Amino acid sequence: MSTLAVIFPVLRTTRLRLEPVRPEHADLMFEGLQDPSLYRYQNDPIPATRAALRERYARLASGRAPGPGGALWLNWISIDADGAATGYVQATVDAAFAHAEIGYVILAAQQRRGYAREGVGALVAQLFACGAGVVRATVDRRNVASQRVLARLGFTRVRSRRSDDVIGGMRGIDDDYERIAPARRGGGAAVPKTIA
């Protein structure tokens, strides 16, 4: 089994199955990703066509971040017990696996059901199990729902700063959050794993 397969498996929670992204997930996700409300706090473009989303997912399926450095960009599609997509979770992990930056989107029709906390919780647990020392997230100050999810998962706001992104013609304020691996809180010597 490859190292990537170990850190990028199917993840399961009580209600969700998080599958490593594949091109065919475009059919599950396309309609839900058309809702403009999902882009209120982020500058990702709405997918133009199913084919374009399928191509994007084919690139993401490699697990490799664009550019030099060997970073990983891991993406999972979150699916409920009825086979409906609920959204996605993702992590960009440095090559030494010392830290990860996470992001997530819950489709509008699936919001307010606890799926964000459940899916992001599974993602964070997987990252820590594979040796990540710190998991970080950046949230637009106006995105109160995401702030609550992170707080419930044990993240701490570490700083606020002017956003690098212009969304809706405005540059907002971003809050940076982090959660340190449990073994490191007490001064333990958790050793990050190197990705081959």
From TrEMBL:
GO terms for molecular function: protein N-terminal-serine acetyltransferase activity; protein-N-terminal-alanine acetyltransferase activity. Residues 16-184 form the N-acetyltransferase domain. GO terms for cellular component: cytoplasm. This is N-acetyltransferase domain-containing protein. It comes from Vulcanimicrobium alpinum.
